[in-house]
Design brief:
By secondary structure, this protein is of the alpha+beta class. A hairpin with a 5-residue loop joins strand 8 and strand 9. Helix 1 crosses helix 2. The longest helix has 16 residues. It starts with 8 loop residues before the first strand and ends in a 5-residue tail after the last strand.
Length: 171
């Protein structure tokens, strides 16, 4: 499958109405875009986003983004910040529908999340937790300059690597 030009990938934040519909497992309206199997945010991401929204967290930090082509004809996947930055650190998550993997789409999307984090002026590092053995995700973060810090066992009992990307300070 050919790689996507990163300039042709956009992040489109899910609006609150559609987020609540997703949470209620009701039909959503994404403007007629095709929705590939596995392209929408997982249930736990939707629940966390609704809780963040209700707690007053700024939309940037709690509302997932759909990863779409510039033509906005289909949804490739989703990505998000996992909450407001704490001590200058913010965690991200991302996922691409199986039919669209291996084309550079996730790399472009995560790159855009890094730009948003940097532009906020309050983030000093971005963290990605990657389950051991997820080679594609490890290659992605390495390509973008993340460094592996340590391994740990998450709440689900999985071995997870903590990968960190540091915002470069401009002199």
């Amino acid at each position: 499958m050919p790689r996507m030009d990163p300039a042709l990938i956009e992040l489109m934040q899910i609006d609150a109405a559609n987020l609540r519909r997703l949470a209620a497992r009701q039909p959503v309206d994404f403007g007629g875009m095709a929705v590939a199997h596995g392209s929408l945010p997982p249930w736990k991401v939707v629940e966390r986003a609704v809780a963040g929204l209700e707690a007053g967290t700024a939309a940037l930090w709690c509302m997932p983004f759909l990863i779409v082509p510039a033509s906005r004809t289909e949804i490739f996947g989703a990505c998000a910040f996992k909450g407001a930055p704490q001590g200058g650190s913010v965690e991200i998550n991302y996922g691409i529908a199986p039919a669209h993997r291996g084309r550079g789409i996730a790399t472009a999307a995560v790159g855009q999340l890094l730009q948003l984090a940097t532009a906020s002026g309050i983030v000093h590092e971005v963290v990605a937790h990657i389950i051991q053995g997820n080679v594609g995700s490890e290659k992605l973060v390495r390509r973008l300059g993340f460094q592996k810090e340590r391994m740990f066992v998450d709440l689900d009992g999985a071995d997870v690597g903590k990968w960190t990307w540091k915002v470069m300070e401009v002199m």
